[in-house]
Amino acid sequence: MELLKEKIRQEGKVLSEEVLKVDSFLNHQIDPALMREIGKEFVARFSDEQITKIVTIESSGIAPATMAGLILGVPVVFARKRKSLTLTEHLYSAKVHSFTKSETNDISVSKDFVSNEDTVLVIDDFLANGQAALGLIDIVEQAGAKLAGVGIVIEKCFQPGGEMMRKSGIRVESLAEVRSLSNGQVQFVGEEAL
Ligand code: 5GP
Q: Residues lining ligand 1, CB < 6 A?
């Protein structure tokens, strides 16, 4: 998605060989017009699926997921991150190791909001090792719902999450595919090295 790649080129900050900061439009301040275009693109890419619900994870997945949900006319559920679980009976939960924070969180979704009648599109902001997406997929499976696929705003293709999921038959659609963050530069898949 060219508009998104251009925004990353202009405003993305390469923090290390592995971490890209996009606080000015996705992770802290949000660019609503860009989010709307991202939502449209997810909807177009999954137009062959009868999606009934979008599942994401707080907090940075919520903006793109909400835009897709608005366009599709379906509800958006965000998994909550919690350090300890107390009342677990009415929750689906999974463990997710955070790539950026190096901590493991339990994530959970109320059983009220995903059921075996749903076809779910999972959306997240970044794909690195795939832990967040796999945790969300685990929750979708616990609910007995059908997984339409995973929509990612920015995939870092040099990390293993995308390949691992695609190899296991999961449909992953990423709107910007980053090939490398070496030398402080963002390089996208299909671009020549400078
Ligand atoms: P994974 O679970 O695939 O290893 O990592 C994905 C999660 O970690 C995303 O939900 C995102 O919040 C965070 N994340 C991973 N890599 C980056 C990155 O380069 N930049 C930012 N801002 N977040 C990232």
A: 19-21, 27, 57, 60, 98-100, 124-132, 161
